[in-house]
Q: What sequence folds into this?
């Protein structure tokens, strides 16, 4: 990974793009679009908000919200039904022992989400899910993550409401602050390898603004040493910016300690090897989901999720990086994602799948 020689200002507020009929049809086809008993707008009608602190008593960006007593029971029952839809396709029979413990609201960021805490009455185990305003670019980001990354995501939409599952892990900024990346139990080379792979996944599928507070580290104990995976948890900046380095986590100042860590522990040739490994895996995932991904990219190409100026700026930069003039024909962010897949396919020399061929 190259040194973080460019630093970006805090992201300007991105406009919210409506979910069009084409994307809605795709979501319905793959059972993402469902009838929900509670909408985002209904949750906005709270009666009182109390600032929420963390376990150390420090303030957070969240408020715990309270609803009127006469509507709280029906509201919480509706939220429990949404959780059942998200987890077990709506089977209420296995959810009777669960209850909604708390609803939190965050006014920070574009999605201004509600976070719902679900508790198991038998063992006090907690889980979370989120209700947000549905935004087309965020939905493309979630679906591309589901299809092209090693992770699977559960989410549902209903009109202007988006329901997302909680992505568990150690937030990147907390991981850096606590210097867990220097923990002797975590092999430095495995952390550096995953950072390279994460960087490549974001760049190929054009997921932007992956500062340390927008992704998490997932640590899985193995029989000898722990395995590391990085997962994005904010998909708001999917294919919006025209700046090529906005899609490379290595170029954010917030990630500089991790970049320096990679430089210390990775030989450049080894980093290239890991990047090529991830390119191969990306193409394998794309081919396994070729029909679904082809339909998604076709809708993304027709959708307006950025400005023509940003598309033209980015296509020029990508054409220069990959030395392919085909980028200069692209008129949408969806076409650029498809062309990125074609570029890494050509580098590796794999045959093109018909569903994924550039249009």
A:
């Amino acid at each position: 990974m190259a040194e973080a020689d460019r630093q970006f200002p805090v992201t300007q507020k991105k406009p919210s793009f409506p979910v069009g009929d084409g994307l809605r049809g795709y979501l319905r086809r793959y059972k993402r679009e469902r009838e929900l008993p509670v909408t985002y707008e209904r949750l906005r009608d709270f009666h009182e908000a109390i600032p929420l602190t963390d376990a150390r008593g420090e303030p957070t960006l969240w408020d715990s919200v309270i609803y009127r007593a006469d509507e709280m029971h029906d509201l919480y029952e509706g939220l429990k039904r949404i959780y059942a839809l998200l987890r077990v396709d709506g089977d209420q029979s296995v959810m009777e022992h669960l209850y909604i413990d708390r609803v939190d609201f965050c006014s920070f960021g574009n999605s201004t989400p509600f976070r719902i805490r679900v508790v198991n009455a038998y063992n006090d185990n907690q889980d979370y899910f989120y209700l947000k305003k549905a935004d087309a670019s965020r939905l493309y980001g979630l679906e591309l993550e589901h299809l092209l990354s090693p992770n699977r995501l559960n989410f549902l939409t209903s009109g202007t409401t988006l329901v997302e599952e909680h992505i568990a892990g150690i937030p990147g900024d907390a991981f850096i602050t606590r210097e867990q990346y220097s923990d002797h139990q975590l092999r430095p080379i495995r952390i550096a390898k995953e950072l390279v792979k994460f960087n490549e996944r974001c760049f190929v599928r054009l997921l932007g603004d992956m500062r340390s507070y927008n992704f998490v580290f997932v640590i899985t104990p193995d029989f000898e040493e722990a395995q590391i995976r990085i997962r994005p948890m904010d998909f708001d900046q999917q294919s919006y910016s025209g700046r090529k380095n906005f899609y490379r986590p290595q170029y954010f100042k917030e990630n500089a300690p991790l970049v320096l860590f990679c430089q210390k522990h990775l030989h450049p040739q080894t980093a290239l090897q890991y990047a090529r490994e991830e390119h191969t895996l990306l193409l394998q995932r794309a081919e396994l989901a070729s029909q679904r991904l082809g339909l998604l990219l076709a809708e993304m190409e027709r959708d307006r999720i950025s400005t023509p100026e940003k598309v033209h700026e980015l296509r020029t930069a990508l054409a220069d990086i990959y030395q392919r003039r085909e980028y200069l024909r692209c008129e949408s962010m969806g076409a650029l994602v498809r062309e990125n897949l074609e570029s890494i396919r050509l580098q590796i020399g794999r045959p093109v799948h018909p569903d994924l061929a550039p249009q």
